[in-house]
Design goal:
Blueprint (H helix, E strand, L loop, with lengths): L1 E5 L8 E2 L18 H7 L3 E4 L4 E6 L2 E5 L3 E8 L8 E6 L1 E3 L12 H7 L2 E12 L3 E6 L8 E3 L2 E3 L10 E7 L5 E4 L4 E9 L10 H18 L1 E2 L5 E2 L1 H7 L10
Antiparallel strand pairs: 1-9, 2-3, 3-15, 4-5, 4-14, 6-7, 8-9, 9-13, 10-12, 10-15, 11-13, 16-17
Length: 247
């Protein structure tokens, strides 16, 4: 189970992913009409942008406006003797040239990744034992920026800050805007486990292929030129995972 706490309670919650993100004109054959594509689109939770921001590129360097910085609606004190105060969090920030913390970035590396920017989700995230979070781009969406994929160990690492999404801006663009409410990244809960891959034996494949032909004969509908259509049957038999945000 994914547990979250918001930096401010008036900020946006994670949202269950949606089957359709792109409004298409009438017509048949759009990718979202394919049941496996819809299942991928709707698998997981979306992290949403909390503010409108615009990235501008000049002479190969990027800047962001507005530079949003907010305070938490809870107080924190590092010790019993200190006065509790709200935490402060920047919304979007770039890697710094000559950076030493939180890790070193060499100048020649920085030149290659200075189009990457970190955007705060303003979400503290935790999962149950042996559950991780795959953070990645929204499936099947083409935008002038993409979210960098990462698997984070949210079951044992209690981050003292809200998790951020690292995105990469398209260097061919001069200006990129991300609007409030737009999905920044996808969160997919996964199990920490050992996953195996092995070839089928010939008898196993014979059984599999016989079963596939039987299924096709039973459920397929013969169309023009002898082709077999399984679309309606596939979507009826498909068992989808559900993603629910409890408040």
């Amino acid at each position: 189970m994914l547990h979250y706490f918001k930096f401010r309670q008036n900020l946006l919650d994670p949202q269950p992913a949606k089957d359709i993100y792109i409004k298409r004109p009438p017509g048949r054959g759009w990718p979202e009409q394919c049941p496996p594509v819809r299942a991928a689109n709707g698998f997981g939770f979306d992290i949403l942008a909390n503010f409108d921001i615009t990235f501008t590129q000049r002479a190969g360097l990027w800047s962001v406006k507005p530079d949003v910085i907010i305070a938490s609606d809870f107080d924190y004190a590092a010790s019993d003797q200190a006065e509790p105060k709200p935490l402060v969090q920047q919304y979007a920030w770039f890697w710094e040239k000559g950076q030493k913390l939180p890790h070193v970035i060499d100048d020649h590396v920085w030149a290659k990744i200075n189009n990457q920017v970190k955007i705060s989700s303003f979400l503290f995230l935790r999962t149950d034992a042996n559950e991780l979070l795959m953070m990645t781009d929204i499936p099947n969406m083409s935008r002038p920026w993409r979210s960098v994929s990462a698997v984070i160990d949210t079951d044992w690492y209690p981050a003292s800050y809200p998790w951020h999404v690292a995105i990469e801006l398209d260097r061919r663009e001069k200006k990129i805007r991300i609007r409030k409410g737009e999905p920044l990244a996808r969160l997919v809960p996964v199990r920490r486990d050992t996953y195996f891959c092995a070839p089928m034996s010939r008898p196993d494949f014979d059984d599999y292929f016989t079963r596939s032909q039987t299924w096709l004969t039973t459920h397929g509908q013969i169309k023009s030129e002898g082709t077999v259509d399984i679309t309606n049957t596939y979507v009826r038999q498909q068992v989808r995972s559900r993603f629910v945000v409890m408040r």
